[in-house]
Amino acid sequence: MSNTEAAQTRPVPHEDILGKAVRHARLPLCITDPKLPDNPIVYVNAAFTELTGYALEEIVGQNCRFLQGPETTRDSIDTVREILLDRRVDTVEILNYRKNGSTFVNALQLGPINDEDGNLAFFFGSQLDVSERRRAEREHRELADEELLHRLRNIVNVMTAMVRMTAREEADPKEFADKVMERLSALGAAHFETIGRSDQTEIDFATLMEPIARAYTSGRGGQIQLSGMNPVISHQLVSPLTLALHELATNAVKHGALSTSQGRVTLDVTKLHSPARMQFTWQETGGPEVAKPSRSSGSKIIQSLTRAAGGTLSYEWRREGLVATAEFPITALLQS
Questions:
Q1: Interatomic CA distance for residues 328 and 269, integer angstroms
Q2: Cα separation of 249 and 311, whole Å?
């Protein structure tokens, strides 16, 4: 006998068994009776009382709107009403209130329960607290917005520094304009070519670093020197690694080795084991004397993104130049 045939011949579970399953389910559930005035709740399971903080006797006989409060939106209330009027199964997110006054974002699924003749008998509602998920999504968006604003400020600051450096190099207005356009174009290309690659395939470290070096060194070859390995970077790590490199290069242009033509950056990449991870060391020399900055909003953003990717980033503010060390876990280390 096939599984399908066995399922067809197996008796349907007794209603008592189904009732016990509903009562003990961890998903909060309620049932309302539309035949009674104001469609009151006639049943809730234990998970519902745990979620809301109300006792059974405080719930039964009330309309579900008793969970609404001052910040429950009219749109969500109207959507609930429309689902009930249409007698369809659907889900709506609505802000509900517990007995103690605390709120939770309720992914409420509701729909009709018909009798054997197809007539409406009850409505069911299942509640899912998605507050933590929405909080995490909100924090992620805020971090992304903060990072974007910081990146835009950095671009403007680097543009200003490039214009100022070019003005010192070129007295001829045409040569000055041509160099400024070329360098600003390189800076823009670096951001588009690297930061915009987070959803693409793996890329080796040297290829990732090329547009960054081209933009931030203003065409002065050899200012950023790569050494060590050239690992292939997992696509999940492209964005945090790129942002860290942009942050270091921005700081070097504004305050460090890349602010002078004599300054140099060595960027050494090595592989560490147990667990397998990549380490790079950014070391600046030949620039102005370095002091630890009093403000670190940019580094805090990069630190947060680095930690989210499972990595670490540390700074050593030596007088002769900044030394930054970063470690990232990687899924592939291929010598190219």
A1: 11
A2: 19
